[in-house]
Write a structure and sequence with these properties.
The complex is a heterodimer of chains A (403) and B (383). In chain A, 66% of the residues lie in helices and 6% in strands. By secondary structure, chain A is mainly alpha-helical. Helices cover 67% and strands 0% of the residues of chain B. Chain B has helices at 28-35, 40-66, 83-87, 95-107, 116-133, 141-158, 175-201, 206-221, 224-233, 235-238, 247-273, 276-284, 289-304, 306-319, 331-339, 349-382. In chain B, helix 4 (95-107) packs across helix 15 and helix 14 runs antiparallel to helix 16. Chain B starts with 27 loop residues before the first helix and ends with a helix. The relative contact order of chain B is 0.08. At the A-B interface, helix 2, helix 4, helix 5, helix 12 and helix 13 of A face helix 2, helix 8, helix 9, helix 10 and helix 14 of B.
Chain lengths: 403, 383
């Protein structure tokens, strides 16, 4: 009430008297300063003590600190590489880079697959079909109550128990499944394909631009021009034209049995496959619960009102329910994506060489424990921060605009 | 639908003949129509799923019961003879391996004759959880119960008194290690997490708030495997010369620090969910900070966050299995070690299933408990 006064003469008189810190325990400001100095001092003292110990221990063990070791030759074999790597000549820096890329490879594919699977299961749990909702419910309950590591070991055990390459399981005549992984036919990549890919990306942006202008037309005239002819033309027609103009090169590298193992084609190693399978199935159970609660958070009246307006069920879901559910779904989904990325570090238990596994080997061989753990933590913090930033941006984009 | 025909007024009314609702809206057939065969797509899905479930069940029963090998004969030398198990590979489960290995899975390398001690410890742990879950025991005495039980568990494990032989800590293993890591981790992480949450909420101590934010965000940003790695390779460097913490203790410290960061966020959520008026009213009554916090804010905030707290507990119970990466013999690691026995070569699925069942029983019990509490809280809320 006193705040409602607008008389300028009163403002000065009402302001609390300004006073400095008095050296007395009765003064809250003094107390808070003392407490902070004490606590921060304690933390600094403990850190100082630990750092002192560490320096002494490092001297005793003759370990030089610094990141110089990153440019020395690694000499460890890496089974799965995305950039060229040679154990005899490549440096530790490059080995760490391979680890980061491998983690990235698992995390990105895992996030996409678990989102798709989790959404399907989450909607399945809300299904009116009794059997579907029970089966998906069982799936969620079981997978959430078993440790992820156990699941990974289980899948890895199953993949290792597959027959040897000579007795591979053949699928669709061209895909071979055996205890050394899955062999797939692979397109022989040529320069023309890069141009085709570029044409596709251009077409994608063109379609987005066309969609925007179509929305504008709809806002002005009430009629939305058709999107699909432009989409087909830009995203399929244009790349095909470019590809044809460059001579339509097309060759497939089929896997074939030579001696005791397969050569040719692409390979998905059992380690990567087990890790991806385990992470996807496990995270999908959590995603399913998030999707379910997100959809249930939309009041029933919204469905009914949309139905009363004459919208079709698909349109109700797409235009009315999902945009509202998304606001509930996105924040917990972000933390699931972060969890998946962090859980990918369990790769170390089944021998997939992700960043944790490679820095682990590195700090065992070079003795650079602090730098190794530092790199590991920095990489994960960078992953976490970028996922959070992206999801926050997306969340802000779809958030309800409040007055 | 139509009212039952009544006799003339005044006459004794005949027993009303209630018409049974037609079979199309009532009864098993109608239920199936509404819930299983509601439309073409739904019917197709039901049939496909039903067939898949039927074949899966038949396969599981054939593998796990009909073709399974429950016990194997002993050879003349006294060793087990796994030939029948090897013959059944691929068509039947080899439960005989579990019969041979279950004690190693549960108790690790604990001296065989002394394994009743970790057995009692497991029962003590279960009793402790049971007592703690009951509302009637939620009072000050519970801290004493915890302290006494934990002391009992450790004296039983170590021994060295009253005729119990001393068992060094590196011979412990199995389910007991899982329970020790998770229970101790949470018992010590929880008070720490409350302090961190309060620190992060404090307005008068910006430097402390900063420290808490850095701690929580740093720990939550990195995976547990990395923290365990750190405990394994870096903690020996931190210690002064001559002092060597053993591996289990290092893992335990890593666990406490890791769990505290996550629990702190849950507790902070509870503190934020409290209406502002509670803190203001406490201030108006002239309560000091700790009086306000321990008597007004925390009791309400913690009650609000019981379900998410239990969910976090479940997560950490499962995550104790990650000590596999630094070679501590918990339930999962000792089972994996048991699998390496050359006699039972190739018996992996069976052991994973049994280990999975043990984890599942613990986690499922906790999650149903959490759901029960949530329901009660909601009831109290919506009254």
């Amino acid at each position: 009430m006193s705040g409602s006064t607008t008389d300028p003469r009163l403002a000065n008189a009402r302001a609390a008297p300004k006073k400095g810190v008095s050296i007395s325990w009765a003064d809250p400001l003094f107390r808070s300063i003392v407490w902070q100095v004490l606590i921060v001092g304690l933390v600094v003292a403990v850190l100082w003590y630990l750092i002192g110990n560490t320096r002494r221990n490092l001297e005793l063990r003759h370990i030089a600190t610094g990141l110089g070791f990153l440019s020395s030759t690694a000499g460890i074999p890496i089974a799965e590489t995305l950039i060229p790597y040679d154990p005899a000549t490549s440096t530790w820096g490059r080995a760490v880079m391979e680890g980061i890329l491998n983690t990235f490879k698992v995390a990105v594919v895992g996030i996409v697959l678990s989102t798709i699977l989790g959404t399907i299961i989450g909607i399945g749990r809300l299904s009116k079909n009794w059997l579907v909702s029970k089966v998906t419910g069982c799936y969620v309950e079981t997978l959430r109550d078993l440790p992820l590591l156990l699941q990974l070991l289980f899948w890895y055990g199953i993949l290792q128990a597959l027959p040897a390459p000579r007795a591979s399981i053949k699928m669709f005549g061209v895909v071979f499944l055996n205890n050394r992984g899955m062999r797939l036919p692979l397109l022989v990549w040529q320069d023309a394909h890069w141009w085709t890919l570029l044409a596709f990306v251009v077409g994608l942006f063109g379609t987005i631009a066309w969609n925007r202008s179509a929305n504008k037309t709809r806002d002005e005239t009430g009629i939305k021009p058709k999107i699909w002819p432009a989409a087909v033309g830009l995203m399929i027609g244009l790349p095909v034209l470019v590809w044809g103009a460059l001579g339509a090169p097309f060759a497939i590298d089929y896997p074939g049995l030579r001696g005791f193992n397969f050569t040719g084609g692409g390979v998905i190693t059992p380690e990567y496959f087990a890790l991806l399978l385990g992470l996807t199935l496990y995270t999908a159970a959590y995603v399913a619960e998030i999707v379910r609660s997100g959809i249930q958070a939309v009041p029933k009246g919204q469905w009914e009102a949309a139905g009363a307006l004459g919208l079709r069920p698909a349109a109700v879901l797409k235009q009315i329910v999902l945009p509202q559910a998304m606001r509930v779904i996105i924040p917990p989904m972000t933390s699931q994506f972060l969890n998946l990325t962090k859980n990918s570090s369990l790769a170390v238990a089944i021998g997939f060489q992700d960043i944790v596994s490679i820095t682990g080997t590195m700090l065992n061989q070079t003795g650079q424990a602090i730098e190794g753990v530092g790199i590991m933590m920095a990489v994960f913090l960078a992953f976490s921060l970028s996922i959070s930033l992206f999801m926050n941006w997306y969340n802000a984009r779809i958030a309800l605009v409040e007055r | 639908m139509t009212p039952p025909a009544t006799t003339a007024l005044g006459a004794h009314p005949a027993a009303p003949t209630r018409e049974r609702p037609p079979a199309s809206v009532y009864g098993p057939m109608a239920w199936m129509r509404a819930n299983l065969f509601n439309g073409i797509f739904s019917s197709l899905v039901t049939i496909a799923l039903g067939v898949a479930i039927f074949y899966a069940l038949v396969g599981i029963v054939e593998w796990g019961v009909i073709n399974a090998v429950w016990s194997v004969p002993t050879t003349a030398t006294g060793a087990l003879d796994p030939t029948t198990c090897r013959a059944a590979r691929g068509v039947g489960a080899c439960w005989a391996a579990i019969g041979d290995k279950w004690r190693f899975m549960l108790f690790g390398r604990f001296p065989y004759a002394q394994q009743w001690r970790p057995g009692i410890c497991i029962l003590l742990f279960i009793g402790l959880f049971y007592v703690s879950s009951d509302r009637r025991f939620w009072r000050k005495e519970i801290a004493a119960i915890w302290a006494v039980t934990l002391v009992m568990i450790f004296s039983l494990m170590w021994g060295g008194f009253l005729g119990l032989t001393f068992v060094p800590q590196d011979e412990w293993g199995g389910l007991v290690i899982t329970l020790i890591l998770s229970t101790f981790g949470l018992a010590l992480a929880f008070p720490l997490s409350v302090l961190v949450a309060l620190g992060r909420r404090s307005t008068k101590l910006p430097a402390v708030k900063m420290l808490c934010v850095i701690y929580v965000e740093l720990i939550r940003g990195v995976p547990l495997v990395a923290v365990l790695f750190m405990a394994n390779v870096m903690m020996p460097l931190f210690m002064p010369e001559g002092i060597n913490l053993d591996k289990l203790l290092r893992a335990q410290v890593a666990f406490i620090l890791f769990a505290a960061a996550y629990l702190a966020e849950v507790v902070r959520g509870g503190l934020m969910a409290l209406p502002r008026g509670q803190a203001e009213a406490a201030d108006a009554l002239g309560l000091a900070y700790w009086q306000k916090t321990t008597k007004i804010l925390l009791p309400q905030a913690l009650r609000l966050v019981i379900p998410p707290l239990v969910n976090t507990f479940i997560g950490f119970f499962k995550d104790t299995s990650l000590v596999l990466t630094i070679g501590i013999l918990d339930l999962l690691t000792s089972s994996k070690t048991a699998m390496a026995d050359p006699i039972w070569q190739g018996v992996a699925t069976e052991i994973y299933i049994v280990v999975g069942l043990i984890y599942f029983v613990f986690c499922y019990t906790m999650s149903s408990y959490s759901r029960g509490v949530e329901r009660k809280l909601n009831l109290a809320h919506n009254r």
